């Protein structure tokens, strides 16, 4: 009986040992699996947190080196706070704005950059002085103003910016046809010798020419108004003085032909400048005097045709002889 009991104990102990071994094996397999999963997770985290950002950073840097500013900006922004990605994103953004001509935004961002980033910007763009001078030569004056505003090292920048601002304001007056106001504006500023001096003077000269052409065109419809404008302009612009001289020459030539009793020829000149001074009167006087001559010759029908709708000779009394047959002709008509 005792032998049987001992045998049973041995069997139970063997089963317990085997069960313990199985549990230990399962625990070992579980621990191994967890270790493998941990290693995988660690490797994934290392890739995500270290290797992938490092690789992305290198790719972004290559875009920056290749001057692909927009792509570099996006790439660095995607990296967030990784190393100096933030400052390089701002540098890329600033270069993109400069290259695309968005100077207002570029200038604001440039002022916020670090000294190293500014140096990098200047290394890529060139000096602001050179950019400003090129913009002036190409007539991009607002861009030139912005470049000079960033050119802290140039002692002449302030004066040139004042001249550029003056030019921009004056050019707006030029475009709106306010020529006298343009000249008054420029004349109110002290004369300065810089890159804009000749261009400001050219703007003044152009304003005289534009105003002259304006009055010349006006002369086609309102000669007296054009003459008033030319008279105000003549002391400052020779072409206006020449216009008035030529116009008065036509007038005097017409008066000369009239005094020579060459009425048809005189009338052509008077009609040519019909709204000038009293040309309308003298043109009608040419008809009256031709009618007078026809009446003297006895050709009353021709005289009547020349008189047209004239019912009174009072305004022409100084031109007609007192015994002109036209007086009796008009009396008969009444």
Overview of this structure, please?
With 334 residues, the protein is mainly α. 77% of the residues lie in helices and 0% in strands. It contains 16 helices and no strands. The protein has helices at 2-65, 69-78, 85-99, 103-112, 115-125, 128-137, 141-150, 157-175, 179-187, 197-218, 223-233, 238-259, 263-272, 279-296, 300-307, 325-333. α3 (85-99) runs parallel beside α5 and α6 (128-137) runs antiparallel to α7 (141-150). It starts with a helix and ends with a helix. 24% of the residues are buried.
Count of alpha and pi helical runs: 16
Mean pLDDT level: 88
For the biggest sheet, the summary is: none
Percent of sequence in beta strands: under 5%
The first-to-last residue Cα distance is: 178 Å
Query: Helix and strand string, N-terminal first?
Result: HHHHHHHHHHHHHHHH
Could you estimate the helical fraction of the residues in percent? over 70%
Task: Catalogue the unreliable spans.
Answer: none
Gyration radius (Cα, Å) is 49 Å
Estimated structural class: mainly alpha
Rough outline: rod-shaped
Number of strands: 0
Could you give a quick summary of the protein structure above?
The chain has 334 residues and is mainly α. 77% of the residues lie in helices and 0% in strands.
